[in-house]
């Protein structure tokens, strides 16, 4: 089939491309799969003796309108976005749990007076927030990994888990930033303690990394 014979096919694909939101790679894969299916259908009609224009018309009509196709494709993109966000949260949370204490170990103030009760509560809250994020991410990964979960009636559950995970992450970023700022206020040496500085830079990079995935999920789920 010649490329200039695929006008109707490409138009339908462009309609889908404009309407769909989600992970770029998955979206590209879905559109490529749709293109191959449409072109195969056109080729089959051409082999039956139909003119190119009529073969395209029938293939596109059989494929379905963009309005009918978008919900199914968007559900797949939402599942992929939740999967990506969940994997990032699991990875970053695991690193945070393992490396968190290393930020403080050996610091000049570690053997001094205990910090205020409010500080201890905030520190414990950060741990609990990330524990909650870890659990939600594990649930989200199970849902998304089930395969086209939104098409089997789990769409509301997936959106609820994704929304909760995004909210917990936002809370975790705020709590972590507040804890870091409070630490600087309590201990002057915190700004010159290398593990603290490395941890702050790594945490900031991790938050940006998670933020991009959360934005992709929000667009896909919307």
Could you please describe the fold and organization of this structure?
- The protein is an all-alpha fold and 222 residues long.
- It has two domains: 62 residues, no CATH class; 152 residues.
- It contains seven helices and no strands.
- Helix 1 packs parallel to helix 3, helix 2 crosses helix 3 and helix 6 runs antiparallel to helix 7.
Summarize the model shown.
By secondary structure, the chain is an all-alpha fold. The chain has 2 domains: 3-64, no CATH class; 70-221. It is 77% helix and 0% strand.
pLDDT averaged residue by residue: 85
Count of individual domains:
2
In total, the number of strands is 0
Q: Fraction of residues in helices?
A: over 70%
Class inferred from helices and paired strands: mainly alpha
Structural shape: elongated
- Order of helices and strands, N to C? HHHHHHH
Distance between the termini: 37 Å
Q: Tell me the β content.
A: under 5%
Low-confidence segments, given as residue ranges, are none
The largest sheet is: none
Rounded to the nearest angstrom, the radius of gyration is: 25 Å
Give the number of helices.
7
């Amino acid at each position: 089939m010649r490329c200039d014979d695929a006008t109707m096919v490409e138009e339908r694909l462009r309609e889908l491309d404009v309407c769909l939101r989600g992970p770029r790679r998955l979206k590209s894969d879905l559109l490529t799969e749709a293109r191959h299916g449409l072109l195969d259908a056109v080729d089959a009609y051409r082999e039956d003796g139909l003119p190119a224009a009529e073969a395209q018309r029938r293939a596109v009509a059989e494929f379905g309108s963009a309005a009918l196709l978008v919900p199914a494709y968007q559900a797949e993109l939402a599942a992929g976005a939740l999967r990506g966000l969940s994997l990032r949260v699991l990875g970053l949370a695991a690193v945070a749990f393992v490396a968190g204490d290393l930020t403080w170990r050996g610091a000049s103030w570690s053997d001094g007076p205990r910090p205020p009760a409010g500080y201890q509560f905030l520190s414990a809250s950060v741990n609990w927030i990330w524990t909650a994020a870890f659990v939600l991410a594990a649930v989200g990964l199970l849902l998304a990994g089930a395969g086209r979960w939104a098409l089997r009636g789990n769409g509301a559950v997936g959106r609820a888990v994704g929304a909760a995970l995004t909210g917990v992450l936002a809370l975790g970023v705020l709590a972590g930033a507040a804890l870091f700022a409070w630490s600087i206020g309590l201990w002057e040496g915190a700004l010159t303690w290398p593990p603290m500085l490395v941890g702050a830079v790594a945490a900031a990079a991790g938050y940006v990394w998670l933020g991009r995935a959360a934005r992709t999920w929000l667009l896909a789920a919307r």
